[in-house]
UniProtKB/TrEMBL annotation:
Keyword Nucleotide-binding attached: yes
Protein's name according to its UniProt entry: ABC transporter
Superkingdom, natural source: Bacteria
Pfam families: ABC_tran
GO MF, any single term: ATP hydrolysis activity
Transmembrane segments: none
Upper taxonomic lineage: Bacteria, Pseudomonadati, Pseudomonadota, Alphaproteobacteria, Rhodospirillales
Organism: Skermanella aerolata
Keywords: ATP-binding, Nucleotide-binding, Transport
Family statement: Belongs to the ABC transporter superfamily.
Residue intervals of the ABC transporter domain: 18-243
Matching Gene3D superfamilies: P-loop containing nucleotide triphosphate hydrolases (3.40.50.300)
Length: 255
């Protein structure tokens, strides 16, 4: 088996925008989407809010190629290249393999692709685990970790994939408040320049991390216009503008 050569983690990855046009998808005879248009700007964080069951996770799965759309749906990369192989997906569940150590769970994608697990690759996995606060738990099995720790392993595994497009489905929801704030900052730093779509139920999280924030609602679902907070993410959680924006978003969601 040939070794797979991948770009260095330090090499810049060109931003890749994503375009969803005329999306249609039905479930049990009901339309989740019907004629949905949506775009992710390359190199920016887009945050998606909305009530449970409206279709946020389904949209992530559609972009990731995990849900089969119906004609005339088009999901394309705006640079004309394929989406396949350029998307990393972090689900709500950590999906760790219980028989693998923390370190091996972060390396599992590389192993499945048949890549040579070199010292450099292992070193990068160790570095990511250190950044998410688990540098001292490299050999621990998932059963030995708390729910928040398992989610941090899943975040490191997602970062390990080093893809230009990153889809995240409530990745920080299982964490305590302080750890959540710290990992939001770490993710914002580590994913600078990537195209990120973050699904969250937390308006403050969206306001901290999003360049663009959208609300999804209705059946079939529609996506509202972008709300674009000022300043680069991650924004301070106690900034008066964020707290005011949180109130506005809560009113919008309640309506």
């Amino acid at each position: 088996m040939h070794d797979i050569v991948r770009p260095s983690a330090s090499a810049p990855i060109p931003p890749v925008g994503v375009s969803i046009r005329r999306a249609r998808l039905t479930f049990d005879g009901a339309a989740v989407f019907d004629g949905l248009d949506f775009s992710l700007q390359g190199g920016r964080w887009t945050c998606l809010l909305g009530p449970s069951g409206v279709g946020k996770t389904t949209l992530l799965r559609l972009i990731a190629g995990l849900a089969a759309p119906e004609p005339p749906t088009e999901v394309t990369a705006e640079d004309g290249g394929p989406l396949a192989g350029r998307v990393a997906y972090m689900a709500q569940q950590d999906l760790l393999l219980p028989w693998l150590s923390t370190l091996d769970n972060v390396l599992v994608g590389s192993r499945l692709r048949g890549e040579k697990i070199s010292p450099a690759l292992t070193g990068r996995a160790r570095d990511l685990l250190d950044k998410v606060g688990l540098g001292d738990r490299l050999r621990a099995k998932p059963a030995e970790l708390s729910g928040g720790m398992r989610q941090r392993v899943a975040l490191a595994r997602t970062l390990m994939e080093d893809r230009p497009i990153v889809l995240m489905d409530e990745p920080f929801s299982a964490l305590d408040a302080i750890t959540r704030l710290r990992l939001q900052e770490e993710a914002a730093r580590l994913l600078t320049g990537r195209t990120v779509l973050l699904v969250t139920h937390d308006p403050l999280e969206a306001l901290r991390l999003g360049h663009d924030i959208h609300v999804m609602a209705g059946q079939p679902a529609v996506i509202g216009p972008a709300i674009s907070p000022s300043g680069p993410p991650p924004r301070p959680p106690d900034a008066p503008a964020l707290l005011a924006g949180q109130a506005d978003l809560l009113r919008l969601l309640a309506s």
